Amino acid sequence: MKKNILITGGAGFIGSHLTRLFINKYPDYTIVNLDKLTYAGNLENLKDIEDKPNYTFIKGDIENMELVKSLFIKYDFTGVLHCAAESHVDRSITDPLAFVKTNVLGTVSLLQVAKDAWKDNYEGKLFYHISTDEVYGSLGETGFFTEETAYDPRSPYSASKASSDHFVSAYHHTYHLPVIISNCSNNYGPYHFPEKLIPLCIHNIINNKPLPIYGKGLNVRDWLFVEDHVRAIDTIFHNGKPGETYNIGGHNEWKNIDIIKELCRQMDEKLGREKGTSEKLITFVKDRAGHDLRYAIDATKLKNELGWQPSLQFEEGLSKTIDWYLNNTEWLNDVTSGAYRSYYEKQYGI
Ligand SMILES: Cc1cn([C@H]2C[C@H](O)[C@@H](COP(=O)(O)OP(=O)(O)O[C@H]3O[C@H](C)C(=O)[C@H](O)[C@H]3O)O2)c(=O)[nH]c1=O
């Protein structure tokens, strides 16, 4: 069946994996990727699919309602997969307003355009918001987030995502816009911008730089391979129930210090370095302000209702991820040096 779908933030980490999956799996779909190409959005992430006939890239901001309206008119979208977001918690602590702008105002602008474009006939339409488990706040040493857990965001980043989730739900309740939200745990995998824990430490191990561990490294995250996440989004987009929320997680909890030790172990082996070499780079630094202790997802609803489960064991996913970075040092050097940005700045005039 033919569909025209708008993916926002398709040049980002999760967005590029999602775009690739949809382009390759659904040749009958027309996919329009609207991305502002901020520091974390990178067209190199989509090099392998950029010439596909069902793919179009538009450089632009989700807050630009005139632009988004014109795209709805031109492409007659039946679906929106909304990935565009500022995503780094540390950046949100130093610049909260940037997060309100993109994550809150950007999402509401998009909702408004979708509602206006679809208001005469919601049949077959879906606005899908890709969100985070951080909206639920922080867990103690036990328990899991379920879809019924009350929102309790604690960082400017999670507050902005919680707010955007609430707007998505509000458009459903007030205007009956068909929406779905999924809240996912920490992702890892290829094309992850090296400001986040895993790619940052891979980059630093390669370059023999310190591995900064906040506090004592005892905070816990539930890690999911990004390709498993986008498979879940695909399943939910096609089979989920409008108005519903789905939690997505890896059931794969690690203390930060343990995950970095595992990363060091694998990288010493792959780089042919003596055992214990990379661990010596571990450096405990000042803790993140308001650092959430633990996230863990109960993804039973997704498993029972839609049959999704993670496919990859963590050690294997981490090994695949490290191999990708070792084979793509040019990508890593470009995104850390700014060479890539200046190339696309010239190309797209930003
Ligand atoms: C960058 C960095 C992080 N950390 C700690 C902080 C966290 O406890 C853990 C992971 O940090 P990271 O910034 O990679 O990810 P989270 O803060 O958990 O948030 C991530 O996962 C959720 C679901 C999203 O929704 C966010 O968009 C995504 O960024 O390592 C360090 O100890 N050192 C460092 O240098």
Automatic annotation (TrEMBL):
It comes from the Bacteria. One of its GO terms (biological process) is nucleotide-sugar metabolic process. Keywords: Lyase, NAD. InterPro entries: dTDP_Gluc_deHydtase, NAD(P)-bd_dom, NAD(P)-bd_dom_sf. Its cofactor is NAD(+). Residues 6-321 form the NAD(P)-binding domain. The keyword rRNA processing does not apply. Its EC number is 4.2.1.46. It catalyses: dTDP-alpha-D-glucose = dTDP-4-dehydro-6-deoxy-alpha-D-glucose + H2O. One of its GO terms (molecular function) is dTDP-glucose 4,6-dehydratase activity. Belongs to the NAD(P)-dependent epimerase/dehydratase family. dTDP-glucose dehydratase subfamily. This is dTDP-glucose 4,6-dehydratase. The lineage of its organism: Bacteria, Pseudomonadati, Bacteroidota, Chitinophagia, Chitinophagales. The gene is rfbB.
